[in-house]
Predict the 3D structure of the following.
Amino acid sequence: MTRDFFNSVVHEWYHPLFRFAISLCHDQDEALDLTQATFYKFSSKGHSIKDMNKVKSWLFSVMHREFVDQYRKKLRRPTTGLENLGELASEEECPASEKADASLLLEILAGMDEKYRAPITLFYLQNLSYKEIAAALGVPIGTVMSRLCRGKEQLRTLFESGLPEKSQPIPFPKEGTHE
Amino acid sequence: MNNQSIKEILSAYRPNGSDARDPRFKEALEICRNDPELLHWFESQLGFDQRMAAALDVVKGPEKGKQAILTLAELPEEDGPFAWWRKPWQRLSLGLAAALTMTAVMIWLIKPAPSPENHFDAHDFAVSDLVEQVMPLDLKSHDREEVLAWLDNAGAPVPTGLPEAFELATVQGCRVYNDGKGGTISLFCLTMDGEFVHVLTFDENSRHYLTRPSGEWWREGEFNIIALEKGRELVAIATQLPTDRLAKYL
């Protein structure tokens, strides 16, 4: 694996992987450890990935396995709140309301059963399809869909009960986008 | 499809539109388009999903963590063609690497042979015997391609016609058994729903050991077992999962 390729993968996937890690670990230091461990495995074993389109799924799958194998056992007491969210985007990049949403979202995710938390986080990263989420977590596609449905219902109930301002609906996708 | 199953499908539809061309959503979207109640639910859900995606996007990993990864990852340097010659420790490394490479090539050329413990009793064959003595695995790995390639290189039968759900199971490794008379059985070890699921594939010289008809469940000790035949490929799947839990994946 060349340095350029490795660096390009780190640049592209560092933040999404960290987001997934912090939803799993609820702690910035543990999330950073987990993210670095994932890239360390990539540096040593990534050459075995034959299809470069699979790098993304490989990374998230390895992170989840690493979490289950190593980190789940030694989780410290969950800490939440803006100060534990890593480095948030600057004021110019996003408004305070989105930062508040982020804090509440992570707090709610921290309290959810892990079987919902992992697929919900991967879904909201939007980088992985439901098939890729199923592959990363090692569960059937039907299970992913059912957990997303139930988990998002639960998330939405908790989230909107804590906020005065509800989300705005998005218009239905236009016809003709499917073959 | 009822409303609940439509909601379940559409809960996996990403708000950024990436799934617009996925055929799995086509029918659900069509029904939703023509049902005011579902349409309202879906538009509202998309709005919420977009808000959550934007919230998650706010979170970024610390830059120092990223720099540490970029700086400390051990990868080959991209120097000029003779730069390595100037570094004595790299010449030594090169020599060691050459020796290791030769060793690796020799190992690659020599097909991996199952240990003597991988013999099974041809006179009193039982699937459960092979499964109960599965540990230690000949190869322990979560990499599906690596495990299947290892089996192929070992001259063992490789399962190729497994149901789609098995593609998503977690791989644990494999083991190869032989009867001492040319018959070989491979064991591909997976986990699904928290339990081991062992896929035993029989080659032409060992398929006679499996006498049960395809599609029939039976029990040996703690294991539920089913034989499946697809073309010339014959497998037995053994697991402690209840039959109805595994059956839905077949």
